[in-house]
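Dear colleague,

Thank you for sharing your sequence with our group. We've completed the structure prediction you requested, and as agreed, I am returning the results in plain text so they can be pasted directly into your records. Please verify that the sequence below matches your submission; if there's any discrepancy, let me know and we will rerun it promptly.
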Amino acid sequence: YDYETLGYGLRSIGARLESLVVEDLAQESERCLMADHVCSHFFRIGSLALVKKDEDFVMQIMLNLDFMGSMLAKQGLEESVLSILNFVGNTGISAAGQKMERTAFEAARCLKSLGTMAAGCQLEDASRAGAYYLSEVGIESAEQEMENTAAFAMTNLEALMDEASERGMEEVAKLCQTSITEVRE
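Please find the predicted structure tokens below.
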């Protein structure tokens, strides 16, 4: 329960991953393998923290996954970004279902961040996944009467829709528009 040490350790792992992916590993397959290996450990401990309803721990994991996902998107490693979006999205949906509003809110923030980064890097599948999971977190939050998180998800969907439109990803933009309506209803 020493969150300062936890945060430092997670940031150190993320920085080392960045060094490996950006500088040390030349082949894309090696970079994907390393990213997936490191992220799988983050997913495992994040899942355990969610089961224990330790929102501070889960939020630390998501902050670091956001950093790693952005770095991986810039490297064009879409499959790894999709894995992160899948974890964050399912964590946000589960958190909303358990009325863990801070965690659901952070998941919505992270999904928007990674979705817009993916759109900016022309990773259409990842951007679409960000929109899908953001919608699901918003819908579950609305069903659990967590109005602030549902409204935040809608705002983030609007921002992702704008980024997708700007990048010529009309299918993603349409998904965002449909999702906004679904969350609102």
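Summary note from our side: Residues 28-51 form the longest helix (24 residues).

Kind regards,
the structure core
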